[in-house]
Design brief:
Alpha-Beta Plaits, binds iron/sulfur cluster, elongated, two-stranded antiparallel ribbon, alpha+beta
Length: about 110
């Protein structure tokens, strides 16, 4: 029995960052975000508010989503001031816009 609050073990302490490579957390999504690059003004509010760090940013610019870890909460879509993000059913095919674009940029940078 604890005699005072000082005897209680500390709670909520994460002593080491979890290894995200071992657990992909996007598996239970029912919806996923879809990005309309033409509407995006790169304010990065979606990046600030995503609880899973699943917004990809390259060279200071929005670059899409990491669907391996996005949980489909929709915060990014609610946050976006230009409605550049909308939530679509998980089954819907979406272009690999982000990864393709990011990869192309990386490859382009390497060749320079
Ligand atoms: S739906 Fe949620 S978890 Fe996925 S990118 Fe948007 S804010 Fe992040
Ligand atoms: S919140 Fe919307 S406009 Fe801002 S960076 Fe994200 S997608 Fe682009």
């Amino acid at each position: 029995m604890f005699k005072s609050y000082k005897d209680l073990p500390l709670g909520g302490v994460i002593e080491a960052a979890p290894d995200r490579t071992k657990k992909k957390t996007g598996d239970w999504r029912e919806e996923k975000p879809l990005w309309d690059e033409a509407k995006c003004v790169n304010c990065l509010l979606c990046w600030v508010r995503c609880p899973e760090a699943a917004i990809l940013v390259e060279e200071g610019q929005m670059a899409g989503f990491d669907y391996d870890y996005c949980k489909g909460c929709g915060i990014c879509a609610h946050t976006c001031p230009t409605e550049a993000i909308k939530m679509v059913p998980e089954e819907e095919e979406v272009p690999e816009q982000a990864r393709v674009r990011a990869k192309a940029r990386r490859d382009g940078n390497k060749s320079k």
